Amino acid sequence: MNQQQINLFFDDLKLSWNKQNEETIKAGKHVMEKMLKREDLKKYLTNQSDNLAKGIELYRDSEFGFILLAYSETKGLYRMPHNHGNGWVIYSVVDGIIEMGTYALIGDMNLIKKEKHQVQIGSSEVYFPGDIHDTQCVSDSVIILRLTSCDLKEEEKQGRIKKFQKPCSLKT
Ligand SMILES: [Fe+2]
């Protein structure tokens, strides 16, 4: 796998791009599923393992602004509940297992955990703009591809990202 091949994956997505359109998100998920089927993807990423821990930007679309990032995590790493502002996100598992939970927001800051489940190798999870979720690496390590519809640093700068300081137990 090389950069040119990665770029090619996004040609179809660019043709049908409409950031907030559910069809575009479906097309994005399809791109991720096709990438996950590449047997050389894991090797391509683990060959850059030092950078993978920090996160590698594999693709940034200069016209539409969507970004593909690859990163690794180690067992136990927990990311508190958050959303991605106006951006949508697709998480895809290249290696390992990650547990993801979703939340309902009651009022300004009260969270109720709706569900949690484990996402295995070859699977993807989609979160729409505003969807609150948390993640925890439950295998020794995990390698994730994350496609976001926009630059999350900009969402952060504009104050659109909500982050919560406490995890919350699952209420059924
Ligand atoms: Fe997230």
Automatic annotation (TrEMBL):
The protein, known as: Cysteine dioxygenase
Protein species of origin: Bacteriovorax antarcticus
